Amino acid sequence: MNARGNWFIRDRGIQPPADHPQYKSTVLRAPKKSLLSLQQTLSEKTGPVFGHSDLDPLDDDMIRNAVVDREPIGERTIVHGYVLDQNGRPVPHTLLEVWQANAGGRYRHVNDNTIAEIDPNFSGFGRCMTDENGYYSFRTIRPGPYPWRNSPNEWRPAHIHYSLFGEAFTTRLITQMYFEGDPLIPFCPIVSSIPDEGARQRLVAKLDLEETIPMDALAYRFDIVLRGRRSTPFENRMEGN
Amino acid sequence: MPQEYLKESASQTAGPFLHIGMYPSAAGLPIRTQEKPNVVASPSIEGERIRIEGYIYDGGGNLVTDAQIELWQANSHGKYNHPEDNQDKPLNPDFKGWGRAVTDFETGLYWFETIKPGSVPGPGAQPMAPHVSLWICARGINIGLHTRMYFSDEEQANAGDPILNAVEKGPRQQALVGQRSSGDGLVTYRFNIYLQGENETPFFDI
To answer: pLDDT digits over A185-222, tens only?
Structure first.
């Protein structure tokens, strides 16, 4: 493989700061000291590679992958899009892990005791990989919004959690996808931890009427951008070298 | 106008229920129960067998019992299982070098079973001391935290490590070193992570 350049420096101006007191859980979990800026080494420029052997056949279909006796209740939904890097190039063959609440806003998790019921036919666990063009899709039930303990009357907008690897340990990203038109988005302190309006808007999936399946499922389009890298392999010189 | 690029998608917290998507057996889901993502090296993998374990503390001294920690490391020869590592060193395709662990809901303990990595080249081809890269996410962590663990029995290599030497000497530097102990034939490195406070672990912008 040809030598390739360093990954672009992360733009912290569009990323949430560690400390965002309106989201109370950050108060004791946010590091207070400055992050140490390091030159990228082989340890950062490499990362785990996953393949189709890491997937089960129904991982990309949350409508079917936990069925016990019938399909889950809720809005049948397709989510699809591209994973790109900052140069606009597709990120092929990269793993996406997604998880979410059910249509009532309840997670299938031993620690979730919110008021809504579990749907025994829905797990909220999904995985898929991008193809050679960076394209991915999965099928699910639209998650419900839910209340949580932060301020006395706090609600999360409907969202799907995403975990992405990209090509290196530096490109690792966890984010959340929201749904166009959800009136709860502007009130959410987790959304507002992102300091940039454009960056917040880019986490909102758009209704995609062309991709809907008539009489079956609505579709939403959600593209994700991972860090890009320099095209040239020239490295900066270390002091003293 | 400078050249324009796409902006990286913004990070969001993994939340308290991250296990559903990334460690489903811990969430209580009856799927992927055979997966042991915190066992990084199976018995056939060459190298010194070690355990890495510890706790994660918040700024109030409380145990963080809903975190996930990911590990990325080279093999015992100091080679990563990745196309960009073109060093002429042995590679076993069965050793991915990646794992993830979650802190126990009750005890807060996380642990990995793996092998001790070899040394890999750093900036300017200067060797780095053996280390594993770590990445932490949890409820209340808005963007994943990168750090490294070095090995306490590698004093000489650690003293020459360019990354460790970029950290203030003393407790800050020591916070990046896992402490070796052996008992019952098992070598264990203890590595506690402090998200905030006097003993705060150094985290990296890489």
So the answer is: 999 999 999 999 999 999 999 999 999 999 999 999 99
The CATH number covering residue B160 comes to: 2.60.130.10
* Parallel/antiparallel/unpaired status of strands B193-194 and B204-205: unpaired
Q: Are A239 and B165 in contact (CB under 8 A)?
A: no
B4, B5, B11, B96: which to substitute to probe chain A, counting the most A Cβ within 10 Å? B11
Fold category of A47-226 in CATH: Protocatechuate 3,4-Dioxygenase, subunit A (2.60.130)
Looking at the DSSP bridge assignments, the partners of residue A211 are: none
Q: How far is CA B70 from CA A25, A58, A64, B102, in A?
A: 21, 25, 29, 9
What would the DSSP string read from start to end of B61-84?
S-B--SEEEEEE---TTS--SSTT
Calculate the average pLDDT of chain B: 96
Which tens digits make up the pLDDT trace of B23-77?
A: 999 999 999 999 899 999 999 999 999 999 999 999 999 999 999 999 999 999 9
Kindly state whether residue B160 falls inside one of the protein's structural domains.
Answer: yes
Q: What sign does the dihedral B40-B92-A41-B178 (CA atoms) show?
A: positive
User: How many whole angstroms separate alpha carbon A33 and alpha carbon A75?
Assistant: 45
Question: How many interface pairs between A and B have CB atoms less than 8 angstroms apart?
Answer: 263
Cross-chain residue pair A176–B12, CB shorter than 8 Å: yes
Residue B134 belongs to what domain range?
A: 36-194
pLDDT in tens, A7-60: 999 999 999 999 999 999 999 999 999 999 988 999 999 999 999 999 999 999
Query: Is B118 domain-assigned?
Result: yes
Segment holding A226, helix H or strand E:
strand A224-226
Count how many domains chain B has: 1
The reply to whether B15 falls in a domain is no
- The verdict on a CB contact (< 8 Å) between B200 and A202 is no
Question: What positions of A carry a catalytic annotation?
Answer: 107, 146, 156, 159, 161
Predicted local confidence at residue B103, as pLDDT: 98
CA proximity to A204, closest of A237, A168, A180, A239:
A180
